[in-house]
Amino acid sequence: MENNMTVWKDQFIAAGVDGFNVWKHQSIAKRLDSIVSDTLNDKNIQNQNFEKALQHMAKMREFLNSPENILGSQKTKHGEIAENFEVHIRNAKAALSGQVDVATFDGVGRTAPEDFILNGMKAQSKFINGTNNSLSSVLDHFNKYHDVTMDYVIPKDQFDIIQALRNGQNPTGLSEKSIRSILEKVDEIERQTGRTFNSVVKQSISNYDEVQIGKAHETIQNNQEQIVDENQRKMDEIDNESDRKKEAVQANAGPSLKEGVKVAGTAAAIATTVSACTSIYSKIKSGTKLADFTASDWKDIGLESGKSGAKAGITAGSIYALTNLTSLSAPLAGAVTSAAMGVTSLLVDHQKGQIDLDEVVTQGQILCLEAGIAAVGGAIGQTLIPVPVLGAIIGTVTTNFVWGIAKGKLGQKEAELKKYMDKYMSELLDKVEGAYHEIISKIDMTYAGFNTLIDAAFDVNANKATLAAASIKLAREVGVDGSKILENESDLEAFFLN
């Protein structure tokens, strides 16, 4: 009864772990679907942003296609062209990034002191040939209107020259007289406006020559190509981010230490409850009423539950590792784990001289057989193996499994056990037809794949350095990426803290 209850509890835990794995895979699928959906949505939004940007560029082309409506002569039309570039191209670039318009002509008269509104501030565009002349035009305009809230926009290349000169450089080979005149005007603008030069004078998005009527169409084309390239970069960024998220989800599809701990903790709680209920039921069945339980009775139940809970935690942790790292089904993993615990206990008893080798093998077979039957049910019986042969096959497999657990645990007695088991195995194999040897071989190979893992899971005598080395070796053998293996305490600390 006790063995049956133990096996039943282990299978209950195994089913729970299996359920966790199913839930996890479903959760991962949902997350991947969500990532794909979000990616499509982000691309749709970016396409809308791109269309809005192109609409602003179309407005600019429409403006340029009616040169007769542009203010000024052939030599001065570039002034209003620069203003439209400033509004439409800036808005196009803002739209591409999903932002609202940053510039507008709304509410601004065509001959008003300001040319447009930029970032909520009145702005006057000054595109004059020559850096010194543009600064002079800024001062003239300010002296006329005395509006300290006005911003001024000058050609990009001229602004760069001014910044270089202020830093002691002379990139264009200007004369000392020109440099002195430019810097004096910079100081004068700051003095009259009471603001820093860079807060008053802004850099245009265009150079002086780019807004000239003979080159404006080329400029608008160059800007549109830049917008197309930037949109593609944003699309690629969306794809790359999607790939990163998918990789992260896929990485989490594999087993992790933290998940194993969570599963183990949950299983411990479940098994503790099962054990407590079983203990209570046993006491009541023996004639003790629940209301008559003494402190000693509750202590017995609590102690039993605690022990069983601790065992359940180890069992569930091992099942999690076996299920995810060796591709075994959770029921079979549960059976193997349960059997391993029982056989390990037998080995300890043998070391103490309490049982002999025959009992180790015989009882070990029973443990493996009972756990295996509980795990796989009638699956073996559904194969085309005659019942008499089936017994020999199961006997061979369970004996091999007992040896797999015992190997390396008996010290000087190991050779004796191996000799005993070899003789026993030989007798069993004589009863098995050659056609079934391959089946035994395949099962043995499957067991061999996780024997080392079982050893590590139940070797309570190993120190932490040995266990760490074993876990690193196991991780490498099952194909874990070297960059993800925790090889020292620093790696372990970083893993949990991050």
Short structural description:
With 498 residues, this protein is mainly alpha-helical. The chain contains 16 helices and 5 strands.
Architecture blueprint of SSEs:
Blueprint: H1 2-64, H2 78-96, E1 103-104, E2 116-118, E3 121-125, H3 131-145, E4 151-154, H4 156-166, H5 176-193, H6 197-200, E5 201-203, H7 216-253, H8 257-285, H9 295-325, H10 330-351, H11 357-376, H12 387-406, H13 414-430, H14 437-458, H15 464-477, H16 489-497
Helix pairs in contact: 1-2, 1-7, 1-8, 1-9, 1-10, 1-11, 2-7, 3-5, 8-9, 9-10, 9-14, 10-11, 11-12, 12-13, 12-14
Low-confidence regions: 266-277, 303-331, 370-388
Count of β-strands: 5
Write down the overall mean pLDDT: 73
Largest sheet: 5 strands, mixed
What string, H for helix and E for strand, traces the elements in order?
Answer: HHEEEHEHHHEHHHHHHHHHH
Share of β-strand residues: under 5%
What is the 3D form?
rod-shaped
Rounded to the nearest angstrom, the radius of gyration is 41 Å
- Number of helical segments? 16
